[in-house]
Amino acid sequence: MESHSLLSLTVALLGFLSPCLTRLTPRVSFPVGSPGRPLTHFRSHEVSNTTTLLLSEDGDMLFVGARDAVLALDVGHRDTMTLRSKLDWSPSEKDLAQCSMKGKKMADCPNFIRVLQFFNNTHIYACGTFAFSPRCTYINSETLTMSLKSDEGRGRCPYDPYQRNTAIIVDGELYTGTVADYRGNRPVISRHLSEGRRVDLKLDDTLGWLEDPTFISSSFIPNEEKIYFFFSEVGREYDFIDKFIVSRVSQICMSDVGGQRTLQRRWTTFAKAQLLCQADNELPYNVIQDIDTLPPAEGAPADDTLFYGIFTSQWSVNSGQSAVCSFRLTDIKSVFSGNYKVLNRDTLQWSTQVQEKVANPGECGLHNASDNALRFVKENFLADDSVRPVARSLTMVSAEHSYSHLTVQRVQAANNRDYTILFLLTESGYIHKTVLLQSGAHIIEEVQVFEQPQPVKSLKLSTSKGMIYVGTSEGVLRLPTANCSFYWTCPQCVLARDPFCGWDPASRACVEVSNTHTSLGQDVDRGNVEEVCNSVSLTHRAKFGPNKLPAGELVSVSLNEVVQLQCPAASRLSQQLWERPNRRLSPDLYLHLEDGSLSFVATPTTLGHYLCLSIENGYQQTMAIYHVRQKSSPLAQTPTSYTWPPIHHIPTTQAVAKPGPGPGLHSSVVTWPKTTETRQGKTEPTLSSRDNHITTRQQGRNLTLWTEESEQKESGFREGEPLLSARGPCYLKELVVVSVLLVLCLSVLITVLMYIIRQRCHSRTAPQTSSPTRDSDRRTPVEQEALRGNQLLSKRNRQALNSGQASGVVCNGAITGSNGHLPNTPI
Ligand SMILES: *[C@@H]1O[C@H](CO)[C@@H](O)[C@H](O)[C@H]1NC(C)=O
Ligand SMILES: *[C@@H]1O[C@H](CO)[C@@H](O)[C@H](O)[C@H]1NC(C)=O
Ligand SMILES: *[C@@H]1O[C@H](CO)[C@@H](O)[C@H](O)[C@H]1NC(C)=O
Ligand SMILES: *[C@@H]1O[C@H](CO)[C@@H](O)[C@H](O)[C@H]1NC(C)=O
Ligand SMILES: CC(=O)N[C@H]1CO[C@H](CO)[C@@H](O)[C@@H]1O
């Protein structure tokens, strides 16, 4: 127990130093109900717990598996989803009584539909939990009527509605991964509805085929004639850690009909391998949450099929974080055709001993093989190698968001190049639309789909209709995959870097990319506004040129009053700057607040024009213009609209060649003190903050405080007094010192605590020795790895910070070891 708490403490400490992640901020955010991204809902008080979604091939009909019902929704219209028909399918009173007699909660006894698949052209096959006694049936997809023929659902559908399962019908046969008993401890991957010489198959009951799995998904690869299953389970090959979870891919051949004597009515082609979502030298994201298949591009070989999965970590270091990894079919195939581990039946230990290969496990067409070969296959089903992600790296990591579901799509952009788009659902209810670029993932936008976190059971993409469907416990909601009209200028359209959207110079609108538009302005890879918008349209300059600046706002103030000017952000990725025509913004007089606004005291020198600029990806645009002038009489108080006087040097909405800070701005921007200690001490608040400026909270709070104070004793200041120099920066130094001291104190305290804890452990478990060698012996490899990593890492961190690389990068917790391939270390 002690060693466990020590491990968790170490791991928790490491959490402060983990891998250096660049933060992924969605460029724009649409709150729920925002008109830019309208959602369509289907809700009915008679419908709840919508768990399974099935989309017709033409995308016009959505079949929904709910509680005690199957629905057919007409989704052919862009504005509405309407209920076309509903099939009630609930257990009888007697079934319910039996269910509750068995000690189940009444709320869990209804029929929760968990399998919904097209069976043939006219029928759907559906299974439900049916009061903890699963049933399956055929449903006519036109009339939504149940056929008389119904099957027992054992092995096809879970008993317990909270258990995850997967099912897929190919050529009229049902392939499932689920638990096949009431207690939920007999997991099985099986085939049903086979006819003639083809028999129903399941896994052999031999130890170790599945170890307490959670089924995630299954995928049919036509060229291979194989079904792949994705799940997580206990990784018994890592017996040094208690309940180490591993993610798996497993395969079966569709041609399988079982063995003749050995493995009769059992899979002869089952094999499984570990899916490793891990960057070199870091803790693995070991728990698969969801996975989606991206078929190869047109003309590309089937081996290029990709699987995009969301993975989280079992360890609290990475809690709340998630990673996306992609796996290539070729890599999966080569792992399955490699060597296999051997299970010692007596000790139940896995080993990688080299042995004579009697057969190739995982090979299709073994049904005629000898008993000897089949016995070999039966015992060798865990591939020795792990499947590593594409390019051996993570596709993306999010430190702030816990993703639960994803769907993936390939989109052809205006330049005819293909881009991969991921739609990732966060647990807090946002969909992140993400494009994968050479330079990494870019979150184009986030759309809030619900306000309260909801258990989402399915996310479905309709590429033909450009819609995403989300099944929640309350119903179904839908949002379009793109709506380009939100971007109403060429720069906005280009900066979005959305492969779906391009600027049409003819209609002067941001439109959806399609074959009919030939020359759309778009730069997904770089988002270079200058190049795209200038080359696309010269008239555009005139439209947004200097004489069409937004009308300035008149601000009337009395002298010595504190003025605060707001600056709206163009996007979450933009930075705001302030400029005055022909003047410098002296840091002595002006204060740049965290939200981008500017604060100063009205004096004769500070009266005049102010320009708020937003800069993003090297492109600068004017967001607001103010004219601050002295109040002449109480009458002039109301701000009136104001037209900008002709000023020639100021940058306008057209692209500015050099994004560098304007005159005098550099010195006035509050910068980070570049000391190791302050960085570490302060990463936490910035991590959670959605703001992309690197400023401390403390600063913000203090500056606000100052504003309030000074408002109270406004009259105490004299004109032109360098107020801010006397307050802000000088206190900042003190603040830094205090933070450093605090961090130091905390470190000392934690070290002492750890020392005490360790001492205690020793005195209890090993009273006679407390030598460090003994200590390290007692640690599991993971712990040792972690601790070694800790030392290494702090050294690395210091180096990084010294060389000034740390800016803009959040460091929060990695295990760096010299040979830290921990989950892959053979035993
Ligand atoms: C796209 O967004 C605009 C507002 O920006 C909205 O009026 C329109 O209805 C949306 N279109 C679709 C198809 O959602
Ligand atoms: C069904 O929905 C209700 C209400 O959202 C929820 O509390 C319950 O857990 C759901 N049941 C299942 C089996 O998902
Ligand atoms: C589809 O399957 C159902 C159920 O077995 C059967 O009644 C129906 O005739 C089949 N339809 C076709 C077109 O084969
Ligand atoms: C394999 O088995 C099938 C029947 O199960 C038989 O027709 C065929 O001849 C066998 N092939 C070989 C090579 O034994
Ligand atoms: C620079 C400055 O004003 N620092 C103050 C920040 O606020 C704390 C209390 O919230 C004061 O103690 C600091 O002096």
UniProtKB/TrEMBL annotation:
Keywords from the UniProt entry: Disulfide bond, Glycoprotein, Membrane, Signal, Transmembrane, Transmembrane helix
GO (cellular component) term, any one: plasma membrane
Stretches the record annotates as Disordered: 697-718, 763-794
Entry-linked PROSITE patterns: SEMA
GO molecular function, one term: semaphorin receptor binding
Membrane-crossing segments per the record: 735-757
Record field: compositional bias (Basic and acidic residues): 774-786
Xref: Pfam families: PSI, Sema
Designated name of the protein: Sema domain-containing protein
Originating organism: Sparus aurata
